[in-house]
Amino acid sequence: MLLNINYQIWYKVCKTIKYKYKLSTNCLMVLNGVYVYSRYIDNNFTRLQLLKFVSYYDNKRIGKYLTVLISHKFIIEAGIKLGRFQMYSISPLGIEVITDLNNSYQDQMYIFCNKYNIEL
After folding, report:
1. What separation, in Å, do the N-terminal and C-terminal C-alpha atoms of the chain show?
2. Would the pTM of this model clear 0.70, i.e. be above it?
3. CB of 86 within 8 A of CB of 80?
């Protein structure tokens, strides 16, 4: 049931954030994946590593979302690995977006649970 509730409120959570930072819901999903993955490995990552972790999108779409996130400075290029793989990391501005997402999630979850009288 919790999964269904999370899915229901995801777009409500993203609504204010995507207008504030001028990002699509999919870019927010990828940025969230970047955050989770970079926290998991505690290091920089490549596009291929991110593609394997955020497996919903294909290589072409991940590339487009990374381009948007880099142009908005939510993700930064962190060097080259083995002479050919571009490494990325999440920027402090990207962390700020994730913090706003978490706060919005908590607010929307509270509103949703109170509206429908749900106890978690």
Report:
1. 10
2. yes
3. yes
- Give residue 81's pLDDT: 83
Structurally, the chain folds into a number of domains equal to 1
To the nearest 10°, the Cα dihedral for 8, 12, 17, 22?
90
> Of 78, 80, 67, 83, which Cα lies nearest the Cα of 30?
67
For residue 9, what is the domain's CATH number? 1.10.10.10
Give residue for tokens 């920027």. 91
Give the chain's residues under pLDDT 70. Answer: 1-3, 120
* 116 falls within a domain: no
CB-based contact 18:24 (threshold 8 Å): yes
DSSP states of 92-109 as a string?
HHHHHHHHHHHHHHHHHH
Q: Where are the alpha helices (DSSP H) in 2-72?
A: 2-21, 25-41, 47-53, 59-71
Give domain status of residue 119, yes or no: no
Residue 39 lies in domain: 2-108
**3 state DSSP class of 16:** helix
